Amino acid sequence: MRLLTAVVLLLCFTAVSADETRTVQFSWTAPTTGSLVQHYVVQLQLDGGLWNTVGTTADTTYAVPCVLGRVNCVRVAGVDSVGRQGIFSDSSLPVDMRATGVPLDDVVIVQKSTGCFRGRK
């Protein structure tokens, strides 16, 4: 059963949380079909490696500590009230924490299952 469909991820960069990470606020839309989602499992991938669970949330937003000097991607999966987890969403667009010269608080990245869009706030 697919619990999470047509996910949209919107990223807004926030303040530096440590010398080696920067907090990135990810948000997505809740699915409109399937079981009601009780919470979401949030996973982070660094530089195209393995996916690691970084937390869970009942909200459709999550602040991820993205690693500086690495390419960070996030995906989510919905879990219903009886513990059934749906498939993971498409990955967010890569958040390239290696890039320089672009003020991070000016970047907005949106991904839909039908395509990717990048622009400024």
General description of the model:
The protein has 121 residues and is mostly beta strands. It contains no helices and 9 strands. It is elongated. 23% of the residues are buried.
Per-chain topology:
Layout (H helix, E strand, L loop, with lengths): L8 E8 L4 E7 L11 E8 L4 E7 L3 E7 L3 E9 L15 E2 L10 E6 L2 E6 L1
Instruction: Report the order of strands and helices.
Output: EEEEEEEEE
| Classification by helices and strands | mainly beta
Stretches with pLDDT under 50, minimum 5 residues: 1-19, 106-121
The helix count comes to 0
**Strand count:** 9
What is the radius of gyration? 14 Å
Instruction: Tell me, briefly, the overall form.
Output: elongated
Mean pLDDT: 73
Give the amount of beta strand, in percent: over 45%
- Main sheet summary: 5 strands, antiparallel
Helix content: under 10%
Placed side by side, the strands forming the largest sheet appear as: 5-2-1-8-9
Distance between the termini: 36 Å
Quick overview of this protein structure:
By secondary structure, the protein is mostly beta strands. It has no helices and nine strands.
Which keywords apply here?
121 residues, mainly beta, five-stranded antiparallel β-sheet, four-stranded antiparallel β-sheet, 0% helix, 50% strand, disordered N terminus
